[in-house]
Structure of Transcription termination/antitermination protein NusA:
Amino acid sequence: MSKELLGALDALENDKGISKETVIDALEAALTSAYKRNYNQAQNVEVSFDEKKGNIHVYAVKEVVNEVVDARLECSLADALQLNRGYEIGDEIRFEVTPKNFGRIAAQTAKQVIMQRVREAERTIVYNKYSKYQDELITGEVERQDNRFVYVNLGKVEAVMPKGDQMPNEEYRPQDHIKVYVNRVEDATKGPQIFVSRTAPGLLKRLFEEEVPEIYDGTVEIVSIAREAGDRAKVAVRSNNEDIDPVGTTVGPRGQRVQTIVNELGGENMDIVQWTEDPAEFIANSLNPSEVVDVIFDDENEHACTVVVPDYQLSLAIGKRGQNARLAAKLTGYKIDIKSESEADDLDNESEVDEDVDNEE
């Protein structure tokens, strides 16, 4: 038992990086509880583990007192002085009370403690490793799927992809290799839980960093992303170098760079628009491919505006089921009301009539 235990402690330290001291502290605490439980003892006991020989000793700890009230916890000064003339009132004495058959209990307890420490260490290793991958892109292999999750093998750990993070235009089959975005890593009771996504805007940002060197090195910056996963996305970019066109750089020669990302996302359409400090210009850019005649800001709401577009481009500006306008609003952070030129003119005429009536009165 002693040699096996010492060998197990050495292996834990070398293979798992778990210090002997940590396991021994836990083992001594567990053996103390085991002694009290198995021998119906409520007295103050301590368990000591000999790190050199692997032997285990149980001691009853008693306080030196003038008059003994509880013999399990106290020792008279007279008895203490017979052991050592140096004892005084208030000192503690340890009497060995190791049972003859305690080795069997110790072996079982040691096994449980070591297994628990191994599990905890493995959980910590996994959590520490994958928490570093949070907000990063990682390639995994689809293992299986149920009504709640797609389970993705990331190597030594299984991640889960909830329904809301699954692309509506994709089917996930076992052994498929997919790129996923690590949304969050939780240190749950049953072990680290890793949540991944195919729909997060962060996934799109990381894909562009992989495909466009200028985005990766910071020459071109992604300012904001609006995405309806699997269908369409808008990406606002700007350049930190006046000589570089951020939109053209991101799209790539003949659209090759952006096309690679479109293919990765199963045909999700991409609008790359230029970010500018002028909010009116940025809002106009965000409604690409529609032309914009004017942007009128709401005096009562600084984050609301009316955008005027040519009559023949009204439906293009709004988009199918309002998607273009909706994505532009997400991208810019403005509430956008789109009107055609004729509608805007009618409103101007009505307001002029109202002003004339007010003046006559």
Observations:
- Confidence is low (pLDDT under 50) at residues 352-360.
- Residues 2-129 form a domain with the N Utilization Substance Protein A; Chain:P; domain 4 fold (CATH 3.30.1480.10).
- The longest strand covers residues 177-188.
- The radius of gyration is 36 Å.
